[in-house]
Amino acid sequence: MTELTYQEELRYNRQIILKSVDFDGQEKLKASKMLIIGLGGLGCAAAQYLACSGVGQLTLVDFDHVSLSNLQRQVLHNDSRLEMLKVESAKISLQTLNPHIQINTIAERLTEQAMNELIPQFNVVLDCSDNVDTRNQLDRCCQKAKIPLVSGAAIRMEGQISVFTYEKNSPTYKNISQLFGENRLSCVEAGVLSPIVGVVGAIQALEAIKLCLNIGNTLCGRLLMIDGMNMQIRELKLPK
User: Which intervals hold domain THIF-type NAD/FAD binding fold (predicted)?
Assistant: First the structure.
């Protein structure tokens, strides 16, 4: 296990005093590797909390560039980085938040073969993408590698989060696709209110940390549905 430096002990003190984390858990976070697919609203929100929490290595994947319409909700980017690759913009912000972690970037649209080669290198994968095709691709690749996947989605003022561990008799993202159909509507057509992506992304980060530390009850087998307009949270049990 990777030992913490004195500076890291001070930085993560408020986490270390939690019985469920302690020094062992914080060292486990430092030794962990997480993959974030998509550095839009969800990815920006999740990545900043994972970085600040002390996840030792984050790999960011996104082929897109920063545009002005992103800045309303994608909090790691700013006006000075318009047209910059999102992964590079996010890396600058994350390194400012926490210089003690390693951040890798992949600025391309990955094929399924490339995903299959990449995913086994990680402890947890976060799906922060914005389209059904990528979500289904990630689901297949994570199921094949048996690497936990934390899935999030947000549109308008609504969000949903679930976790897939691919253990025996546990559901996959495909089960959600079957329940809701292949709704290809994006925030470009439907819109999205800025805070909802922050809420969903933060919960994704929390679930990823719980998976890494093997603590608490994750959203495996459950779909958390957030109605931000009416501030109602529902839970749906997923079929096995």
Answer: 12-238
In a domain, 172, yes or no: yes
pTM of the model: 0.93
- Beta-strand ranges (E) seen in the chain are 33-37, 57-61, 102-106, 124-127, 149-155, 158-164, 222-227, 232-237
Sequence-distant (≥ 6) Cβ neighbours of residue 4 within 8 angstroms: 12, 23, 26, 27, 30
Containing domain of residue 189, as a range? Answer: 32-237
- 240 confidence band (pLDDT: 50, 70, 90): confident
**pLDDT exceeds cutoff 80 at 177:** no
Residue 82: CA count within 13 A, CB half-sphere: 7
